Amino acid sequence: MPHISEEQLKARLENKQLVETEDQMTDQYKEDLIRILTVSADTELISAPAYYHAARHAPSINALISALAIIQDEMGHAHIAYRLLEDLGVKKEEYVYKRAPAKFKHPYAFDMPLESWEELVVANAFYDRAGITLLGDIYRNTTYGPWKRALVKVDREETFHLRHGEIWMRRIAQEEGGRARLQKCVDWMFLLTVEWFGLPDDLKKHAGQLSYGIKGSSNDTLRQQWLKTAVPLCEELKLDIPARWDDAQQKFIITCPFPAHFDAENKRWKLEDGAITWDEVMKRWRARGPANQYLIGRAQRGHHEMARAA
Fold first, then answer.
1. Which of 85, 109, 200, 304 could form a disulfide with 90 if both were Cys (CB 3.0 to 4.6 A apart)?
2. Do residues 211 and 143 touch, judged by C-beta distance below 8 A?
3. What is the 3-state secondary structure (H, E, C) of the chain?
4. Distance CA 178, CA 190 (A)
5. How does pLDDT run along the chain (310 residues), one tens digit per residue?
6. Which residue ranges make up each domain of the chain?
7. Is this model's pTM higher than 0.85 or not?
8. C-alpha–C-alpha distance, residues 175 and 170, integer Å
């Protein structure tokens, strides 16, 4: 149980002292920490079956081995985050194996099935870039010591995943018909990753993660950091994206209606319907996507089979 007052915690943070144990945090700090750690853990976990589903379409045995190495990394990252949650009183086994699929907190993008090698490598280039953006910010800025130290390994491995995606996108773009195949992926995956960073700052409800220094940057700042490197990659490969740099605003802007309705069945943005509210986006997120039950089921299947056999 937490044993520190808000004033004591504030003084600790102002003195640049890391929070190391539960008795050095308040109830609110712990609640905010569990919330963001859960998103991180769930995202790493679901990425493994999501990537495996697409890795089966690898063009060579060497490509498959690289994809399997990434999947192994993601499982390790999930274990790290769930282990940190366990230190905060979360029952890891129940959290991983007994939660209903719809209760997991990963980004909606991972509820969409990855069904080709092209979709896998674009996911590495887009989704893992988002992961590096988020976790890199936490690694540099977090006030929670155990997470900061754990992220040394995670940050290096996620960089490999990103490079894997970039290398393969460049390779595929040189193939006959390759750019068109990549464009088909980018058309639905780009905006899903822009969404990844969550509500705009003016709509964000939970401010504790920033005020406590659990993370260092706001959602919109992180979104801009992602765009800063994702947009040049797409421009280099001559892939059409609905984003560009705006000199007047000194930031990247989205050049299509956003947020927008998404046709999950056909992997298509219904931009012709115009922009929607973030409340409507949140409704879609809460309903989860078409691969949610299948992918979480894959992650939980072995445990359930062992329980039935016992």
1. 85
2. no
3. CCCCCHHHHHHHHHCCCCECCHHHCCHHHHHHHHHHHHHHHHHHHHHHHHHHHHHCCCCCHHHHHHHHHHHHHHHHHHHHHHHHHHHCCCCHHHHHHCCCHHHCCCCHHHHCCCCCHHHHHHHHHHHHHHHHHHHHHHHHHCCEHHHHHHHHHHHHHHHHHHHHHHHHHHHHHCCCCHHHHHHHHHHHHHHHHHHCCCCCCCCCCCCHHHHCCCCCCCHHHHHHHHHHHHHHHHHHCCCCCCEEEECCCCEEEECCCCCECEECCCCEECHHHCECCHHHHHHHHHHCCCCHHHHHHHHHHHHHHHHHHC
4. 17
5. 557 999 999 999 999 999 999 999 999 999 999 999 999 999 999 999 999 999 999 999 999 999 999 999 999 999 999 999 999 999 999 999 999 999 999 999 999 999 999 999 999 999 999 999 999 999 999 999 999 999 999 988 999 999 999 999 999 999 999 999 999 999 999 999 999 999 999 998 778 899 999 999 999 999 999 999 999 999 999 999 999 999 999 999 999 999 999 999 999 999 999 999 999 999 999 999 999 999 999 999 877 777 777 6
6. 6-309
7. yes
8. 9
